[in-house]
Each structure stands twice: as structure tokens, then as C-alpha cells.
Amino acid sequence: MKKFLNRCLIFLLVIIIINTALRVLVPYYWGNTGFASKVSYYQENKASYNTLFFGSSRTYRQVDAGLLDQILMDSGFNASTFNMGAQATFNPQVYYLYENFLEEDATGVETVFMELMEVDEIPEQILHTTRNKYWIDISYYWFSLQHFFNVREWDEIWNYTVTFFENFFNANQVMEIINSLGGVDVEDKYLGQAQDGFLPIDEEVRRFSGTEEARDLELRHERFKEQAENLENRRKDLISAFDVTKDYPYISQVHLNKLDALIRNSEAKGIRLIFFIADTKANKRLIATWLNLPEANRIELISPETSSYNFNSELRWDLGHLNEKGAILFTRQLADKYVRISDK
Description:
Blueprint: H1 2-24, H2 33-45, E1 51-54, H3 57-62, H4 65-74, E2 81-83, H5 93-104, E3 111-115, H6 130-133, H7 138-150, H8 155-168, H9 174-180, H10 201-207, H11 212-226, H12 229-241, H13 253-268, E4 272-277, H14 284-291, E5 298-300, H15 324-341
Parallel strand pairs: 1-2, 1-3, 3-4, 4-5
């Protein structure tokens, strides 16, 4: 029995060593195709940029980097912006990507805008996918456990635990890791027409008309037009969500500590980190979290009172994203609010 246990232990140790060696050989972003394409392009052109955006598809689809630079230049700012936003990239994956970016690629960056989101749940339909688990290392597993204990959302702990161990043992990922050893091919579609990382959904549908992705996007738009009342319901929910103070009792101190650490670690690299809210589905906890950040490090872009364009169906592609015209208003407001806090 003792020999059997020793053999099992040795076998397990060998598996861990092999898995660890494989992960060392691939870049930190290997499991996120969209972000991988963007950061690879950025690495080849980093001398051209001093301002970056990190976030989800809302960032990807709604922050017009070229327009932002133009507006800021007119206000006396020297900004050259690249949009790193990527589809289905939520928190804490965004934090993971940014922290690794700080360690490896942050030279020359002066300002980073990061989309502030809740710590995301892991739905059953993506539980075992590489895209969902490649980033969950021991540090982010521990962070997630602490957060969900803090906010008493016990159900989320199981899915994060399953995901962490699948990632630790490279479950169903070995071939994908091996395929990533040859490097990342930059896919033009993620960079947008101006090669600055901004791609509104309208533009993607025009440029890639006839593809399965374009047809799916068109279908999403049609469904949105048929259910316009959902946008009004979201506006009403958001009005209620804004009725909150920074002392909201159900806030996550764990999340706040992470945000504070990100700000401090960025400052140590000479980078000003600014968090912005873009999700019109934001709840009281997220808005209270935002209120607890320093004024010089936060921008809000969803208030029904000051950002009413978010609730104009003619300016949206679907319930979650503005269209090309909406993105112009979003970017203009973002630039204006950045100028206002620039002296804080």
C-alpha cells in the first residue's frame, strides 16, 4: 500500500511539473484570442501609444480611440490611445491581464482606463472552457474565494473551485497550450479599421458581412428592436441603483482592496489608472464601489440623468452595447469627464 501511494505521489508530482513547464512557455494571455491579438500588435507598436483601455466588449465597441485622442488634443492633452478591450473579458480576468501587463509591457504608458465591473460569476455554459479558466491561478482563486465569502454569495465558490483545479491540471488544455507555443497570430478583425483596437458592432457587420459572426450580430440587433421595453426597464433599475452611498453595507472590501492595490501598483510604474463604469446593468454594490474610489481615479458614464443617450434605442445595437453613433457620444463624454478630473 505504501509503495502504491508513493507511486501515486510521484505520478502526481510529475504531472504538476509538466503542467507548470507548459504554462511557463506560453504568454499570460494565451487563452484569450481577442486580447492576445491586441497585445501582440501593441507589443510591436508600443512606442506609438501612451494611453490604453482595458475592459470587456463594452470598452471594445464603445471607446473610439482616434476620436478620444482628437478631443483630448483640442484640450491640450497629448494622448495616443490603443483600445485593449476584448469580448467576454470580465473581472477578475481583466485584473489578471492588467497585472501581468504591468509586469511585462507597461513601459511608456502614462494613463490606463479600466472598465469597472462586478467580480463575475461563472455560468454553467462556459464552466469548462479554456477561455473561462486559463487565467485562474492560485492568486486569483484566493481573491475570488475571499470576495464571494465577503458578499456571502456561496454558490459561486464551487464553480470557481472547479475552474481553478481544471486550470491547474491543464484539463482539456494541453493541445491548445502546445498550439500556442508558436506564438500568436494577430487577427485584423480585432484591431478595427483604424488599427487602434476600436471596432463598433456596425463596422464589424459591414466589414464581415455574410460571415456567421455577422449574421449572429444582426440577429441580436433584430431581437433588441423587438424587445425595446427592456431598455426602459433597465433605465428604471439603474435609477434605483444610483440611490446609494459609499457606505452601502453590502460592498465587498476584498474588491475595494484589489482596486486600491491596482491604483498603487500603477502609480509605482508612473501610470495613472482610471476606472469607468460602462455597464447599464450596474447594481448598487458596483456604484457604491465606484464611489469609494478616489475622485481622480474614477469616471461614471451610465447615469440616466447625465448619460441619457445610453437609453435611446436608436443609439444602441443591443441591450448591452451602443452602436457606432452611440459610441461617439460615449467617447465624447468620457473625454470631457477625463479633462474635468485631470487636475485632481
